[in-house]
Automatic annotation (TrEMBL):
UniProt cross-references to Gene3D superfamilies, sorted A to Z: TorD-like
Coiled-coil blocks: none
Keyword terms of this UniProt record: Chaperone
InterPro entries: DMSO/NO3_reduct_chaperone, TorD-like_sf, TorD/DmsD_chaperones
A Pfam family the protein falls into: Nitrate_red_del
Name of the protein in question: Nitrate reductase delta subunit
Species this chain originates from: Paenibacillus typhae
Length: 231
């Protein structure tokens, strides 16, 4: 009996740096869009060498790196208090302004839209533990979904086929959700704040997501080529 072989997952060098950094970029965005910028959070990222590497992939990341790593440690408590107040102002869901960190509100969709996202997450085997009752279409939850899918693709995939399945989920989520509303979100965030932290995060987000989609598509093409060669 012939046992069918499954092509092993091999990462070409051209994609290695992107794969090593993209999960960290998503985690940075989740951390700062999902909670107030505490002193411990800022100190954690200041000390993280991998953040410095990941930040270099975008100009917005370099802005964020200069701001977080360029401050005197004695000034950090005051800076964090200022940025906490800005987070509360920007992320206040009861605000009457057009600015919102939720897909449904940005695109004028019904609240029931969150149920569709909840079902999408569940179909991918993802259940979020929400500390602050975030809606399923909140920017931090959608970005965390991408971070979870990245980890599964990178660390729990041992074949081209399984990697491509997880890759396709991410491509569709970027195309059908994040990239449909984050350009407008970033534009409104840029107009709503003068904070170096949130401007850096906004610039990072609007630059990184299209770049990430392009790289996912390119890696998929590479995986398809590898699989056909081994067939």
């Amino acid at each position: 009996m012939t046992i069918p072989t499954v092509p092993a997952l091999v990462v070409p060098e051209v994609f290695s740096r992107w794969l090593e950094s993209r999960g960290l970029i998503y985690q940075i965005l989740v951390d700062f869009y999902g909670r107030k910028p505490s002193l411990s959070l800022v100190a954690q990222w200041r000390a993280n060498r991998q953040m410095s590497i990941a930040a270099e992939l975008t100009e917005g990341g370099r802005e964020l790196k200069r701001y977080l790593c360029g401050q005197d440690p004695s000034e950090l408590p005051q800076i964090c208090e200022k940025e906490k107040a800005e987070y509360v102002r920007l992320m206040n869901e009861r605000s009457a302004s057009l600015f919102s960190a939720r897909e449904a509100i940005q695109l004028g969709r019904e609240q029931e839209f969150c149920n569709e996202l909840s079902e999408l997450y569940a179909s991918a085997g993802v259940v979020f533990k929400k500390c602050s009752g975030e809606a399923d279409d909140h920017i931090s939850i959608e970005l965390e979904f991408m971070a979870v899918m990245h980890e599964r693709m990178l660390f729990n995939s041992f074949s081209v086929r399984s990697a491509m399945e997880l890759l396709d989920i991410q491509v569709r989520f970027l195309e059908e959700h994040l990239l449909k509303w984050t350009p407008q979100f970033c534009s409104r965030l840029n107009a709503a704040t003068s904070s170096p932290l949130y401007l850096g995060l906004s610039h990072m987000l609007e630059e990184f997501l299209p770049q990430d989609l392009q790289m996912l598509r390119a890696w998929r093409a590479s995986l398809e080529s590898s699989a056909s060669t081994m067939a």
